[in-house]
Amino acid sequence: MIDSLNGEVLDIAVDHVTVDCHGVGYLVHAPATTLAQLPRQGKVRLHVHYSVTVDVRSGSSDHRLFGFLHRDDRQLFRRLIEVQGVSATIGMGIMGVRTAQEIHTAILTGDESMLKGVKGIGPKLAQRIVAELQGKLAGVPLPTGGVAMSLGNTLKTEALSALISLGLDRMKAERALNTVLQDRTGDAPTVEELIKLTLKNL
């Protein structure tokens, strides 16, 4: 069982990162929220969920690694995919649109609208996720990891809404937006400036 990987970032793509660990390159699937925080080069440590699926017809198996910067994020992902109907792909979609803290809070407060905004999640599945996980997460401390938004969630929300209205993919737009916000920590650009900077990063 692979618990974590500690190595050099080789390449970052839309949905994964390649990490070189002592000469072996590991392809690790990661949500947009994690990819946005990774360095373009240099060392990184990822907490890994190792998944094996077997095709019952052909007998072939598919081995995948899913990586997160924080243990809390990985634990939340594991909770999500325990819910019937939540595949690893859907789980990654959920983890990619909000921080683990925001997802945790949404489930505890019964905010199904956030879940229904993820591709592959309809009203029934959103209800099931909340119903099954509310009790399990009730006594769990809020995750402390995630992208630090010192400029405030309001600024991010307004910019993201505008980008989506322009026809941009939500996950790609949020990833680029998170990168800009990280670069402008301590600075306070207007929503218009933030949108322009984000478009340059797409």
In short, what is this structure?
With 202 residues, the protein is α+β, with helices and mostly antiparallel strands.
Number of domains: 3
State the strand order across the main sheet: 1-2-3-5-4
For this structure, what is the CATH class of the largest domain? Answer: Mainly Alpha
Overall geometry comes to: globular
Distance between the termini: 36 Å
Helix content: 40-55%
Name of the CATH homologous superfamily of the largest domain: 5' to 3' exonuclease, C-terminal subdomain
Cα-atom radius of gyration? 17 Å
How many β-strand stretches?
5
Main sheet attributes: strand count, strand direction, barrel closure: 5 strands, mixed, barrel
Tell me what you see in this structure.
This protein has 202 residues and is an alpha+beta fold. The chain folds into three domains: 4-68, Nucleic acid-binding proteins (OB fold (Dihydrolipoamide Acetyltransferase, E2P)), CATH 2.40.50; 71-138, Orthogonal Bundle (DNA polymerase, domain 1), CATH 1.10.150; 153-201, Helicase, Ruva Protein, domain 3 (Orthogonal Bundle), CATH 1.10.8. Helix content is 47%, strand content 20%. The chain is built from nine helices and five strands; from the N terminus they run E-E-E-H-E-E-H-H-H-H-H-H-H-H. A five-stranded mixed beta barrel has the order 1-2-3-5-4. Helix 4 packs across helix 6 (123-138). It is globular and about 50 Å long. The N and C termini lie far apart (36 Å). 33% of the residues are buried. Mean pLDDT is 85; it is low at 147-152.
